[in-house]
Amino acid sequence: MTHAEYPWLLPSDLAEAADPDQGGGRRRRTVRDWAVDTVGFVFAALVAIAVARTSRQLNESDAVVLVDRILGVTAAFALWARRSRPAATAIAVAVLGVVTPATGGAVMVCVFGAAVRLPPRRLAAVAGVALACGTLQGFTRPDPEIDPLLALVVNLVLLLLVTGWGMLVRARRQLVAALRERARRAEAEAGLRAEQAQRAAREAIAREMHDVLAHRLTLLSVHAGALEFRPDAPPAEVARAAGVIRDSAHEALQDLRQIIGVLRAPEDREDGSGDRPQPTLATLDTLVAESREAGMAVVLDNRAGDPATVPAATGRTVYRIVQEALTNARKHAPGAEVTVSVRGRPGDGPGAGLTVDVSNPPPAGPVPHVPGSGQGLIGLTERATLAGGRLCHGPGPRGGFAVRAWLPWPP
């Protein structure tokens, strides 16, 4: 909120609007309030002195001059109560003005204060009383040197001027209050957006950690379980399983180190600016080869064309979908052949986009229990939805399990 955005506001108003702690309720009298009230008091007192001198020049009695002075001073002192009781003060001063014109200055100040603080209906009533009392004063204390009609017109114009001025001040203060509330609301919304962004970042990191580590740790669990249940396995098979365990543990450690690095370094984003390159569709062959080395039978049918033409975010999503599907197949259908099919083309028409199918038949023998969180497919569905696509999964027509996803491929 700057002066360039709201040039009609004073710098103090902008500061008040920017500070939510100063708004609302009945506030203490500030230095500016004391200065304004003092100026109003002096103005009302000077008007009372001038009217008393005029009364003496018109050869009115000393009692009338004394009454003018007393009522003028009383009206001037009554101005100090106009902030807490604007309507009552204005009406009381206006009634005093019926018998003496010495309260004219105080009436104008009170009407101005009422216009600043009262709603339109109450202000109209106060201004009507002030106008009526000013009209009656023309009959009770007429000025022989001024035409009564002219005095009535002058009184009406002055009341309209001070009322309009007060309403303008009231409108500006309402604008300041609205800006103050807007600033408070904007601050609260900014905090809420920051919390939502932090929550979204944590959820994204949690999904990425699950997708990355579940594949590696499943390899560890499967091969460690094989070594546990087959202690009499040939040395070559034991050595191969131990090598897979070692490589999977190393890769899991590297992946975990990368995720922790993203948490510590904000510049490491998914655009590939981290220490390790992010997986894409081009690295899908490496993932399949790694699964084959771990003992899985995987058939890859990649008809998506040049992987370099696929957007990095889309390729990364395809990689995570296949990775999670292979992990689930390794856990729940060991020994079954897994078929991975990727096909598609860029564009917006029918048949455009990337389609990923991962399916496997039911396992031939008993399935060892491998613990899992059960959140992998849920995370894949959410990841595909965030990418603008869709994902479905379930038992295949001949048993087994199938995962099918479609992702947009912009031209």
From TrEMBL:
Q: Which residues cross the membrane?
A: 34-51, 63-81, 87-116, 146-168
Give GO MF terms, alphabetically: ATP binding; phosphorelay sensor kinase activity; protein dimerization activity
Q: Which residues does the UniProt record annotate as the domain Signal transduction histidine kinase subgroup 3 dimerisation and phosphoacceptor? A: 202-267
Which enzyme type, at the first EC level? transferase
Which superkingdom?
Answer: Bacteria
Which residue ranges does the record assign to the Histidine kinase/HSP90-like ATPase domain?
316-409
- One Pfam annotation reads HATPase_c
Reaction equations catalysed = ATP + protein L-histidine = ADP + protein N-phospho-L-histidine
Gene Ontology CC: one annotated term: membrane
Q: Which UniProt keywords apply?
A: ATP-binding, Kinase, Membrane, Nucleotide-binding, Phosphoprotein, Transferase, Transmembrane, Transmembrane helix, Two-component regulatory system
**Enzyme Commission number(s) from the entry:** 2.7.13.3
Q: What is this protein called?
A: histidine kinase
